[in-house]
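Lecture 7 notes: from sequence to structure.
We start with the chain below.
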Amino acid sequence: MRALFVEDGRLSLVERPRPEPGSGEALIRVRCAGICSTDLEIVRGYAGYRGILGHEFAGEVVATGEGVDAAWLGRRVVGSINVGCRACAVCADSGPEHCPNRRVVGIMDWDGVFADYTRLPVANLLRVPDGLADEEAVFTEPLAASLRIREQVPAREGERIAVIGPGRMGLLIGQVLARSGGQVIVLGRRLASLALPAQLGLATGLVNDAPDGRFDLVVEATGNDQGLAAAIRLLRPEGTLVLKSTYAGNATVDLSPVVVNELRVVGSRCGPFAPALAALSLGEVVVQPLIDGRFALRDGLAAFARADEPGVRKVLLFPG
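Predicted structure tokens for the same chain:
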């Protein structure tokens, strides 16, 4: 099969043996996959990953391993990305997301989905509703990550919320938080970057024009030092900062205001797939306008170049 393979910061289209599903696993033909900011940062060196890249996908089960119900065959599916050991106390208590022995699809010790085929435990799979297109279902993973914020930070009446970064994640986060109540504004550095969030019905503004100490909750979704520094500046004392970015390198930011203003800092990663699928099926979150490119897998290098252009949101890959 064909696959996009990353090693030492180099991305290449290679031929690899088709994976075989193990016990409790399914072999999935990838129908659609999405390039996210984490994928771009892995190519730059984040996480030190070597293997097939990618973790956002919609696919079809074409084979199953031992112990898997044959009813899975032919189903369209999406899959959560953390593969836990299922034996430790962490897995038993809260799931695989923080299992000390976990593997993470396309990020850590488990080949990803930028390929003709991938494999996953059926415990990670959810069926895609019949009325939901592949191009929408592929947003399940990042939308679930957006929903995770409300699991960690419950909504409060009259809450003033800023989402910094009107990009791939920021536009999903903005829609999710607007649905949950509060006064939400999406902030960017350029007026042009605010056109799409405004089209989606979100309030917008330039981050440099936003006053200090105005917000109760700020979500940082830019993946750069400037965004993090702005998030700290915009929070009121005892406000909450949610970090939603992963990136290669080290941030250089003055953290003194975090101490002086007693800010609460929340790291936020993976979230619930079932509510994300439901929201997509009901049209509660709009994703089609976020798509800025569609490429065949064979043109994967061009797809990554497109995804890395300033202002580009979601780029999709189609192995078929």
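Points to note: The CA atoms of residues 240 and 264 lie 5 Å apart. The chain has a mean pLDDT of 96.
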